[in-house]
ABC transporter ATP-binding protein (Aliarcobacter cibarius), 220 residues
Amino acid sequence: MIEATNIYLTYDDNKYIIKKGNFSIKPKEFIFIGGNSGSGKSTLLKSFYGEIPIKHGNLKIAGQEVFGIGGKKLRLLRKNIGIIFQDYKLVNEFTIEENIMIPLKINGYSNEVSKEQANKLLAHVRLSHRAGYYPNELSGGEQQRVAVARALAHNPKIIIADEPTGNLDDYSADLVWNLLKGANEQLGITVVVVTHRVPRNLGIKFRQLSIDDGIIYEVS
Ligand SMILES: Nc1ncnc2c1ncn2[C@@H]1O[C@H](COP(=O)(O)OP(=O)(O)OP(=O)(O)O)[C@@H](O)[C@H]1O
């Protein structure tokens, strides 16, 4: 599902954040990515959804080459991916129902279908009673559950999450881990999560990668 061959990532050409990155993530795997602060975890995730260019090497996501990607191909790439951030990144001017409708509308679904799907997902994350609320009327944990629903809305093949529980208390973090686990187990979605703290008792098989001095390696 994700195949990296000798990828190099940089912001300014003076220093490679990721060097000679080689790894392979199979469909339906659950992957954690660790490493010290500043080691390049978020940078690596950004390369997956075309937010920063691949400087050298090849990166295939769901069969699509990411090197040099832009325009229509980038839109197609993002169709396969749902993204979750530490700080939720919901649109404050939209209700939470409307937030979940965003990826559906972008992908060409009608208002009616988008609304129906958003409400199914709101029920899934147990927030139906908040459909008309705005993000700033919700707790952080609730906002992150909306972000998970939004990431799932367009039936992506891959979920990418950058410290999804970093701002949450243990109770809310558990709810988010369970939603990600369900997406992986029940929907067969490949899940890639950057986290400093791998949850104990996740209850599913997972693999761990780590980044040190720009090098990506497998944690055994
Ligand atoms: N937009 C940017 N422009 C230039 N340099 C950047 C940019 N974003 C990140 N960096 C640098 O790239 C390096 C890796 O940053 P990145 O955010 O990927 O690390 P991280 O492992 O996710 O860190 P953390 O665990 O603290 O979130 C850091 O040295 C950082 O300063």
Observations:
- The pocket of adenosine-5'-triphosphate is lined by residues 11, 17, 35, 37-43 (CB under 6 Å).
